[in-house]
Automatic annotation (TrEMBL):
InterPro entries: 6-PGluconate_DH-like_C_sf, 6PGD_dom2, Mannitol_DH, Mannitol_DH/Oxidoreductase, Mannitol_DH_C, Mannitol_DH_CS, Mannitol_DH_N, NAD(P)-bd_dom_sf
Domain of life: Bacteria
Stated name of the protein: Mannitol dehydrogenase family protein
E.C. code: 1.1.1.-
UniProt-listed PROSITE patterns: MANNITOL_DHGENASE (PS00974)
Domain (Mannitol dehydrogenase C-terminal): residue spans on this chain: 284-470
Annotated Mannitol dehydrogenase N-terminal domain residues: 27-275
Gene3D superfamilies, A to Z: N-(1-d-carboxylethyl)-l-norvaline Dehydrogenase, domain 2, NAD(P)-binding Rossmann-like Domain
Record key words, sorted: NAD, Oxidoreductase
Single annotated GO MF: oxidoreductase activity
Signal sequence, renumbered to the chain: none
């Protein structure tokens, strides 16, 4: 990679926001600089920096995972700059040069540098994308203190975002003492509340009531809903960017043209004027979160294992498969939307937009990506629809079918019959789900996945068992 991405890029094909990078000061610290952050929050801030009065909102991008240090070293070499390619369903394509991540710190190598940055009064906002599983909370929002990663962090290690927030906020509370906002950007319902719950329990485990008091006075945890389908960049995409622009960009990302960010207006630190660049500030994010998680994410999750069982590679292929596209429509219209009930969001219109986005063949979003991390996703994405329907006296047949397809996918993966690789960080939790009556019982009664549904509504266990049998017969 040339160290001068900007100089070597052919500006005619590439849009770049008009600001002098040298004039930018960092005001945001982001934990977890994955593809989603680079295609989403970094893009909003890149646009914001082009507004004259908003030049104090550069981002410090922080890596917290040792296994990502090597890739992150490339990012540092690239000075945090990269090319984002976006593609619309009609083929319209755009390349943008993103420069908003003005500073990069590998926290896995230099944790004290992260603490210093977090203590600096110029930093007004911390954003995080550490995946749904990265918060280590059970179904009752209880921090998993027995989890080895959390246990080690309570003893002073740096595995999870809590260890970084704890150390950085402690330093801040003792030095600059400036107020700050912690804005969770992961796909969790009530994500701000969850981050707050996890962090406060972590601090309790550290036995640091003084810090807990300081946080109550000086830190806010707004909820937010983030949205942009961001496939893992393929080698083909990387090659395209490299040859098109003559640069060795290893950090390039790609995504759909659609982008959305809805943020609860609750800032303890200064507030970036993200509404100037398309984000929405609202008093209550819940209706937006619920719509997104229960229609988009749940739609992905319920369809993807069936797509894998059918041997499909790309998600848009599932939308062109008559059976699966009908299933998707039925799941949303029969189960998801009725369980949501009244909403400020026009849910049928929202569903139509998502159906179009899912059909976008140009982004090459893979079934493999969406199958990833099922154990963390089901309680977040699917559980509310399951529960909502049972509590309303309805049987969510389509939801149950989606759950059963995951069970079949797990079994057939174990038997080596599925070509889609399954990336499951919680593999150990699936160990008891064997392909027999005991395994089905264990699966249907798993409290992390389904809460009290199996005991409150024993029909669920019966109906799921039947759906699993049907799924196994269909796909085995
Ligand atoms: C997907 C999301 O991983 C998943 O299950 O549903 O990554 C989805 O693409 C994003 O949330 C879109 O904003």
């Amino acid at each position: 990679m040339s160290n001068h991405l900007q100089a070597s890029l052919n500006k005619e094909q590439l849009s770049v926001q008009e600001y002098q990078k040298e004039a930018i000061q960092a005001g945001v610290l982001h934990l977890g600089v994955g593809a989603f952050h680079r295609a989403h929050q970094a893009v909003y801030f890149d646009r914001l920096l082009a507004h004259g009065n908003e030049q104090n909102w550069g981002i410090i991008g922080v890596n917290i995972r040792p296994q990502d240090s090597q890739v992150f070293a490339r990012f540092i070499e690239q000075k945090g700059e990269y090319v984002l390619k976006t593609m619309a369903a009609d083929g319209a394509t755009k390349y943008e040069h993103i420069r908003s991540i003005v500073q990069q710190i590998d926290g896995a190598q230099a944790p004290l540098d992260v603490d210093a940055a977090l203590a600096n009064a110029n930093i007004q906002l911390v954003t995080s994308t550490v995946t749904e599983g990265g918060y280590y909370l059970d179904e009752n929002r209880v921090l998993m203190l027995e989890h080895p990663a959390i246990k080690a962090d309570v003893d002073g290690a740096r595995n999870t975002l809590y260890a970084f927030l704890y150390a950085g906020l402690k330093k801040r509370s003792e030095t600059s003492k400036a107020k700050i906002t912690l804005l969770c950007c992961d796909n969790l319902r009530h994500n701000g509340e969850l981050l707050e719950a996890g962090l406060m329990q972590f601090i309790a485990a550290k036995q640091d009531p003084a810090l807990a008091d300081w946080i109550k006075e000086n830190v806010s945890f707004p909820c937010s809903m983030v949205d942009r389908i961001t496939p893992k960049p393929s080698q083909k995409h990387v090659n395209d960017v490299q040859t098109r622009f003559g640069v060795d960009d290893e950090m390039t990302v790609m995504g759909e043209d659609f982008i959305q960010w809805v943020i609860e207006d609750n800032f303890a630190g200064k507030k970036p004027s993200l509404d100037l660049v398309g984000a929405q500030f609202v008093n209550n994010v819940v209706p937006f979160e619920e719509a997104k998680i229960r229609i988009l994410n749940a739609g992905h999750t319920c369809v993807t294992y069936q797509a894998a069982l059918k041997g499909l590679t790309y998600f848009d292929e599932a939308m062109r498969d008559n059976e699966l596209s009908q299933y998707f429509t039925d799941f949303i219209l029969q189960d998801s939307i009725p369980a949501i009930g009244d909403s400020v969001v026009d849910l049928p219109a929202y569903f139509n937009i998502i159906a179009q986005r899912f059909s976008n063949a140009n982004i090459g979003d893979t079934v493999e990506r969406i199958c990833t991390d099922g154990y963390a996703k089901f309680p977040i994405f699917i559980f509310p629809t399951l529960e909502g329907n049972y509590r309303k006296g309805r049987t969510p047949i389509k939801t149950i079918q989606g759950i059963a397809s995951w069970f079949a996918f797990i079994q057939l993966t174990n038997e080596g019959k599925i070509k889609t690789p399954y990336h499951e960080p919680n593999k150990a939790a699936l160990a008891s789900f064997s392909n027999d009556a005991t395994g089905i019982q264990a699966f249907a009664n798993d409290r992390f996945l389904w809460g009290s549904i199996p005991t409150d509504f024993p029909d669920f266990v019966e109906q799921l068992t039947q759906a699993i049998q049907a799924s196994m017969e269909k796909y085995a």
